[in-house]
Amino acid sequence: MSRVTVKEFNLPDLGEGLTEGEILKWLVSVGDTIELNQPIVEVETAKAAVEIPAKWAGKVVQIHHPEGTVVAVGSPIIAIDTDPSGASASTAPDDDFSGGIADNAAAAAAPPAAEEPGAGLIGGPAPGGRTAVLVGYGPRTTEAKRRPRSTGAPAAAAPAAPVAAVVETPVPAPVAAPASGPALAKPPVRKLARDLGIDLTTVTGTGPQGSITRDDLAAASSAPAPARVAVAPGEREQRIPIKGVRKLTAANMVQSAFTAPHVTEFLTVDMTRSMKALDRLRADREWRDVRVSPLLMAAKAVLMGLRRHPMVNSSWDEANQEIVVKRDVNLGIAAATDRGLIVPNIASASDMSLRELADAMNELVATAKTGKTTPAAMTGGTFTITNVGVFGVDTGTPILPPGEAAILAFGAVRETPWAYKGKVKLRQVTTLGLSFDHRIIDGELGSKFLRDVGAFLTDPEAALLGWS
Questions:
Q1: In the sheet that 58-63 helps form, which strands lie side by side, from edge to edge?
Q2: Which tens digit of pLDDT belongs to each residue from 277-290?
Q3: Average pLDDT of the chain?
Q4: pTM confidence score
Q5: Which residue from 113, 145, 197, 393 puts its CA 20 to 30 A from 464's CA?
Q6: Residue 220: domain span
């Protein structure tokens, strides 16, 4: 009886009803020895980019999809030999990472000649239960149901490396990609091909496993053969696939814009005293290592305003025909990243001191810049601030994040001639733009809230002393 210990690792269900993910970066290579829970791949979903840990220790024997490939949830992405030393002769089938359990009855009855690569390796219960859980996700407590498979049969992906080179015992050979399948090329090469107007399906790849390289594109662009797409002068264009975070953001913005009746009000305020308060914070010994910006004062002003006007911190429940007023303020901060606009939030920001708020905001921004914001950090927001001032913009008319009743656009702080104590002086001035859901917030409430946010920024010390 031959020893078979190669297990197929499927793309897990990362929650939130997601059905696919794009492989951004492989963190391991064929032949690598990996440990339990070691991050092996970075995947971008419609929510965020996340690192997925290995659910078994062992040796990587095959990587099924190159970087840049969009893979359906439940599809195999990597094969791991869990016993490369041959110490065990047993073959314990395992459940897939998303918690679904495949039916092995048909596989057991099928003759060996009809088996696909890796058949019979998935489906049974895992010894000791689930061994790897993504950060931010606990083990499932309800019975999982498999998603219906798509009717179209996708073309099999070319292997990243020959399995026989690293597996000690016979493993069924991988199915080669058909000639009519998609061209194999990394995302930078695909972008270059689009820029050059080259159809990748007409290019012969000379890279690993027949992948197309930059040199292949250079040769194709100078070849007399019709390797270039005919483009009329002045009509060159670039096509960017709508996927991942950008796709979800677009859908949310369309839904919000055509569901909640938006009203936007503007207020220009003199926040010279707020800027001086920031200077005092920077000079304080306890704050010297903390990055503070005008956005911190805007956030505190919003939190104080929501304390006075709790109805602004609410949502519209269409199904139950109710307005849900939230006690906690989960303060969203819109962040522009390489993968699109995301809105992570600071949970229970209303309960934080000014220092705690500053630390939380700095951590939120740093995490967003590295692309490591988790899906959990982008759900449950109750009020959002979009800081358009960092781009030198005065203000805007922001669209509400779905489920929130208001959003504040915080504009650039500029030195501006301003009437102050009967004279015209140069003062630090900004413009606020508040968009709100008119089903929940009428003009009076929206105006009072915006007025109080402006009052805090005009004189934060007086507001802190005088407001309840």
A1: 6-10, 76-81, 58-63, 33-34
A2: 999 999 999 998 89
A3: 78
A4: 0.57
A5: 393
A6: 183-241
